[in-house]
Amino acid sequence: MKGAGAPATRKRRKLLWAGLALPGTLWLALLFIVPMYVVFAIVFGQVDPIFRTPLPVWNPVQWNTAQFTDVFRHIVGEDGYFGPALLRTAVFVLSASVLCLTIAYPVAYYTARLARHHRNLLLAALIAPFWISYMMRMLAWVNLLQNDGLLNRALSLGGLFSVNIDWLNGRSFVVVLGLVYGYVPYMILPLYAGLDRLQPNVLEAARDLGAGRFDTFRRVTLPLSRPAIVASVLLTCLPMLGDYFTNDLLSGSPSTSMVGNLINNTVLTPGQTGQAGAFVLLVLVVSLVPMIWYVRSTRAEGLAA
Amino acid sequence: MITAVRRWWSNPWRPPRVLQALTAGYLIWSLLPVLIAVIFSFNSGRSRTLWQGFSFRWYWGDPIRSVWHDDSLHTALVHTLVLGVLATAITVPLGVAFALGVDRWHGRLPEGANIVMLLSFVIPETLLAVALLFLVDHVTTPLTLGTSAQVAGLVTFQLSYPVVIVRARLLTIGEQYEQAAIDLGASPMGAVRRVLLPMLTPAIFASAVLVFADVIDDFVIVRYLSGGSSSEPTSVKIYNTARAAPTPALNALASLMLLASFLAVVIGLLAYRWFSRGEKGANGIKSFADGL
């Protein structure tokens, strides 16, 4: 409800709020919405025959789908060399998300419901990875997983065996574990926030009515925490779809490349910029439904609060 | 023996040892590798895996390869901090104004703007980076690849943080203070400036600190929008050299970034306490953290 007062004051206040919101809105329109349109213009545009640079076509009527269908044909079809990378992305992201959830849920549950004495210290330690750059965390693992790194040295048990496993050379599980390591902090905090909001009397009521510990968890806690689980899985899954640097750092091989690598390898290559744009559109379409789902659930929460 | 274990297991009041062990294990797995990397930045030899003694060689000692003397590392460090300051200085005012406007203005346009803002929060960063690269390359804008494009991209990506934080805070504050101010004769702008903004200082400082720490660690956007090696920040330097047998100078560079984030938090906290000196209820860390 707007404040009481003469309609003139109300109009002035409306202008004030509109004026405050305007710079940010303009910024987002010019630097978020317009670039998306430029991507469309490039994917559905032409390619300069000599320089192989992309020529954007601004009028939607003149859009030509040649580049897009070309990419599509190479995904599904006899010549589908993009297909494996897309499938691999889905497998990697799915397994990494499941692993993240199995790690994040117990930690978040403990922090939200059971940690009493050191809760603030625990929260600070859980938030710490946000202050540590992603690159540094991956660099730390590259150091550990090198041929002469600490992991191989620890496995050799101080000289008993000679362990010289090449961890950083095209191993899928190393990439998946790297993704888990990188993104699990992003899952813990929303889960913690959601679990913190659970009312303890509901759980106590379940126990009072005779349910055992695991029964209470399965039939009361888990269903009640479902919105938090969905939100945190989305918040973790979506950035993973654009990830290419984890694969580049932890596995130099194209046999573990993800769709982010497909984008990265083509975006600056002459003649293939349109392909990069096509992949961007593809990932955008795939992630649009989860993104909108997340936005709607956040807004519903905001309205209900 | 078995009955003792069974009795321990079925005791509903026992401390949750399993979960405690899991959490401790997670924290060690999460933080120990980084701690080791920081420790090896003080290595006196060239190895990043074999400890050869303590020294500051890679920070300023080594006349060629230390962070202080190596031009490329030095440039990267300075450029990262410049990006951090510029991006934060633009994002926070823009975001706070946007939050205030969208929260109080009712209608379709602010609803749409809010949705776009939330989308910019949750979109995979690579998509935004590529889209901005296309924009700068093919549309005549005042932006050029390098610092200007990087700052613009960073602000777009980070804009949602102050907005989300400030709106959460506005929800808690409510409209009554402004109403009271207007009833007492303040203009709408004056009510915002003299009543609402001071109440929002924890949220504003918290979002500034958050945005700064996020910007100096950003990788995808700054890499695509960089104009050459002189506008490559430290994250790109680490990415370029991590697999190519670097010296511990890289560890030193990363540790300096850690220090910068830590200092940002401390400075933010101190600035908040200085700005809210004399206020009741602004009791330091707790209310600062509440701003988050």
Task: Spell out the blueprint of helices and strands.
The complex is a heterodimer of chains A (305) and B (292).
Chain A: H1 7-43, E1 46-47, E2 54-55, H2 66-75, H3 83-114, H4 119-131, H5 134-145, H6 150-155, H7 172-196, H8 200-208, H9 213-224, H10 226-241, H11 245-250, H12 259-267, H13 273-304
Antiparallel strand pairs in A: 1-2
Chain B: H1 2-10, H2 17-40, H3 57-61, H4 71-104, H5 108-122, H6 125-138, H7 147-158, H8 160-173, H9 176-183, H10 188-216, H11 220-224, H12 234-241, H13 249-275, H14 285-291
Helix pairs in contact in B: 4-7, 4-8, 4-10, 8-10, 9-10, 10-13, 10-14, 12-13
Short description:
The complex is a heterodimer of chains A (305) and B (292). Helix content of chain A is 72%, strand content 1%.
CATH topology of the largest domain in chain B, anyone?
Answer: MetI-like fold
The largest sheet of chain A has its strands arranged as 1-2
CATH architecture of the largest domain in chain B: Orthogonal Bundle
CATH-assigned fold name of the domain at 84-269 in chain A = MetI-like fold
In words, what does this structure look like?
The complex is a heterodimer of chains A (305) and B (292). In chain A, 72% of the residues lie in helices and 1% in strands. Chain A has a domain at 84-269: MetI-like (MetI-like fold, Orthogonal Bundle). Chain A is globular, with a radius of gyration of 25 Å. In chain A, a hairpin with a 6-residue loop joins strand 1 (46-47) and strand 2 (54-55). Chain A is built from 13 helices and two strands; from the N terminus they run H-E-E-H-H-H-H-H-H-H-H-H-H-H-H. Chain A has helices at residues 7-43, 66-75, 83-114, 119-131, 134-145, 150-155, 172-196, 200-208, 213-224, 226-241, 245-250, 259-267, 273-304; strands spanning 46-47, 54-55. Chain B is mostly helical. Chain B folds into two domains: 17-55, no CATH class; 70-291, MetI-like (MetI-like fold). Chain B has helices at residues 2-10, 17-40, 57-61, 71-104, 108-122, 125-138, 147-158, 160-173, 176-183, 188-216, 220-224, 234-241, 249-275, 285-291. The longest helix of chain B has 34 residues, at 71-104. Chain B is globular, with a radius of gyration of 24 Å. In chain B, 45% of the residues are buried. Classes of the chains: A mainly alpha (305), B mainly alpha (292).
